[in-house]
Amino acid sequence: MKFVARLMIGLLGVLLRLPSARALVIVGDGGLTNTNAPAGDQGWSYVGTIHGTNGANTTGVYLDNNWVITASHVYGDTPTNFMLNGSSYDIQLNTWTQMTNADSTKADLAMVRLSSAPPLATNLTLCATSPTNGTAVTMIGNGYGCNIQTNIWYVDTNSWSWFTTNFSGAVNFSGYAWNYTAAKRWGTNTVAGTDLVSTISPLCTSYSLYTTFDNAVNEAQGALYDSGGGVFSQNGDTWELAGIMFTIGTYSNQWGGTAVFGNATYAVDVSCYRDQIIATSWSPIANFTAAPTNGFAPLQVTFTDKSSDGGTNITNRHWDFGDGGNTNITSTNLTYTYAVSNSSYTAMATLTVSNALGSSSTNQLISVWQVPPPTFLGGSSAFSVNPDAGSATISFMGTNGVKYRIVYKDDLLESTWKTDLNSGAWMPVSVGNEATNLTDITILGTTQRFYRIEAESVDAPP
């Protein structure tokens, strides 16, 4: 026999994600049984379905604190929601976090956060050590089932050509053809070994445990859509998550859509990534609001922290306002003013929150506009003087979101512009662009006066 699990893993990792039905291959039942929780649950309540925009229905396991763990390659299906025990939970895809190895290579294991937490009585326990060979496990997933009847294939093990009719020198292999039924199902097996497994699509290296498919009652073998399914082992009275299924191993040239005795199911060994999983599930998730997100300079923006603390208090919030300004604070909101510039500009405001277990960041684009100069109305008639009333009026087109005032000098040699007209009050323009008049009623007794219009954002601080 020529077993080629490692050669086929890359291809089958892709096949596990092709769109269609759900159910494990279970020996002999034709997809008719094991669709309800096994005795003692054995992890059943924590295993759900991840729906992708491409129609894929893969598998995920709920951990705690809104987090689901699955195979990393499931990301390629663009997951949208997670179905668990009859309820749907939106997936926050921006929280997708892939586990890594000590050498920084990536494992085919990832976590993603839900918009809300399923109402489970207890959190799932993770195995602290790799299960030993011979450890009994329960496998739960949404992959294809199989037909009731056993198939026999006749194989030329020199060329590894497969046939359905016997011939001289053929080696018999038996197993099942997938029946493409859809159901969440469970089956049993035992750990056959552990290995460091590399997959091609996507490129990952994962510390893994594996099972082999034998002709035994309730024996399980992974199939299409079992990616992300759970492998559970019992520790005393507690069923713990030991692995996350991500690919299968087959014989060379084995027909597609079949499960042959001697095939393998590979699951990422959760104990090897346990510290990362715990740190991720209890690390904070950064989130904030900014108001307004655009306007004329100087632009005063109120930032409000909406981060989740992950169950462990946030100890620091670092705000980078994107224009060179930054601060570290512990309070949940603050106000920042974006300064006037020679032109309009954008700034990427970033919040990084951290606690004892980790940190995360998120950002928001802020657009700061240069205040446009006023457009004077009517040419020379934009300035009018009424000597009898002792007033002078300047007429111009104002811009929505900008406020204006007039300042003056009675002698251009004066060093500063006087701001006491109208008690220094600003006139805002708040609805569209509109004709605006600014009037000086203090010109009696003056022989000359020089005016300047000042403009700034309505949102500018006083």
Using brief descriptors, characterize the structure shown.
462 residues; mainly beta; Thrombin, subunit H; Immunoglobulin-like; 3 domains; six-stranded antiparallel β-barrel; 2 helices; 34 strands; 47% strand; elongated; disordered N terminus
What this model shows, in words?
The chain is mostly beta strands and about 450 residues long. It has helices at about 5-15, 275-280, and strands spanning about 25, 45-50, 55-60, 65-70, 80-85, 85-100, 105-115, 125, 135-140, 150-155, 160-165, 170-175, 185-200, 205-210, 220, 230-235, 240-250, 260, 265-270, 290, 295, 300-305, 315-320, 325-330, 335-340, 345-355, 360-370, 375, 385, 390-400, 400-410, 425-430, 435-440, 450-455. The chain folds into three domains: about 5-280, Thrombin, subunit H (Beta Barrel); about 285-370, Sandwich (Immunoglobulin-like); about 375-455. It is built from two helices and 34 strands. The strands form eight sheets. A six-stranded antiparallel β-barrel has the order 2-3-4-7-6-5. Strands 9-13-14-19-17-16 form a six-stranded antiparallel beta barrel.
* Mean pLDDT level: 86
Q: How many β strands by DSSP?
A: 34
What kind of sheet is the major sheet? 6 strands, antiparallel, barrel
Low-confidence stretches: 1-23
Q: The CATH topology of the largest domain is what?
A: Thrombin, subunit H
Q: Tally the structural domains.
A: 3
Give the CA-CA distance, first to last residue.
83 Å
Query: Which strands sit side by side, in order, in the main sheet?
Result: 2-3-4-7-6-5
CATH C-level class of the largest domain: Mainly Beta
Structural class given helices, strands, pairing? mainly beta
